[in-house]
Amino acid sequence: MVSMKEFDYLGKGEVYLDSACQSLRPRPVIEAINQYYTEHNSCGERVKYKWGVITDDKVEATREKVLKYLKLSSRKYTVSFTLNTTYGINLILSQLNPKHFSKIITSEIEHNSPFLSSMAFSKRTGLPREVIERNEDGSIDVDEYDFKRAVVVVNCASNFDGRKLKNIKELTKVVHKAGGIIIIDAAQAMAHSADILKGVEVDAICFSAHKMYAPSLGVIVWRDDLTEKMEVGFIGGGMVDDVKKESYLLSAESKEHRYTRFESGLQAWGEIVGFGAALDWLNGLSKKDWKNLEDNTRELYDFLANSDKVHFVNNEANPTMSFYVEGLDSHMLGNALSRKNIMARTGYFCAHYYLDHVLGLPPLLRFSLGLHNRPEDIDKVKKVMKEVI
Ligand SMILES: Cc1ncc(COP(=O)(O)O)c(C=O)c1O
């Protein structure tokens, strides 16, 4: 069971409801990072002294844990570390060779991260870009669209209402059959709803460890044949085995070092080690912890849904819920909550296109719950919201 000792840095009465941006880090994760800095501070992959060996072992273990978490085989998939989801998606799209593709497809409910990088891809390659609709339940009508040789880049969980790409398996099958590739933005799925991805053989999954109780870090899980459709366009130290005046030998040519394909330069070793600890922490959670998150979500969602003044974007309860309160400016409401030590987000959460231009909504308030939240937090939020509304 999650212990509040693991989040003991939260002050009394402080309620953190911004897990969709960055989840709080439990003590064991912070400890693992501290341990890296105080016990084996070293550069990975290059260092032969004992600190380096410890770092290498932990980094390698983290890669293995990621694949295990996603139920993907190391025979087909590789794990590379980057800065964040945005960086991972851009790294892939900016190096895809357009000769293999006919267009790029994204969806209307995307975070700016795939939404804008798909625009950049279209500009760079001259290939058309299509923005397709998502059903209320988050699925995509595969019969509605032509996926022939398409690059599809979509999320499997939204960052404003958590709706999921329910038919991800079907979509993956259809895209592959049509000769396309599918890149999944899993930023919002990895912490609380990774089940949707488990064993699904997409071409790449990009996500941010900082949304899964880990330090700031990006991750790309990619199918080894993806790079056959790419040209090297971002390269430097840590990626090559040999360099001549006008040529080089990529380390990624060997399976053992394939991850280097997306890891140019020195990596965030301490953060990777901390991420390994976060995966252990997530794997160690009990049914009670998940039930606690579900109960808190239900309690807060039902409370808000009962008010005539609250207008939800959500179609159903989800730990991530966005809404506006009739007659109240969301930014002012966010400030009022902050004065009561409730930390929540306001605005369009980098999903401007859909929330502002498709739905035409005013700026919103977003509560995104995490595994650290207790029923007392929800009681407090309900009390304050009652006063405010
Ligand atoms: C669905 C989704 N995609 C992409 C991102 C971008 O993540 P990052 O800023 O870590 O790159 C976010 C961040 O909130 C997100 O929620």
Provide a descriptive summary of the structure in words.
This protein is an alpha/beta fold. The chain has helices at 27-39, 50-70, 85-93, 112-125, 168-177, 269-283, 287-305, 330-339, 352-358, 375-388, and strands spanning 15-16, 77-82, 103-107, 129-132, 150-155, 181-185, 204-208, 218-223, 240-243, 248-250, 310-312, 320-325, 342-343, 345-347, 364-368. It has a 7-stranded mixed sheet, with helices on both faces. Strands 11-12-15-14 form a 4-stranded antiparallel sheet, covered by helices on one side. It is globular. Pyridoxal-5'-phosphate (PLP) binds next to helix 3.
Q: Distance between the terminal alpha carbons, to the nearest Å?
A: 34 Å
Secondary-structure element order, as H and E? EHHEHEHEEHEEEEEHHEEHEEHEH
Shape type: globular
CATH topology of the largest domain: Aspartate Aminotransferase, domain 2
Oligomer: single chain
Helix/strand/pairing category: alpha/beta
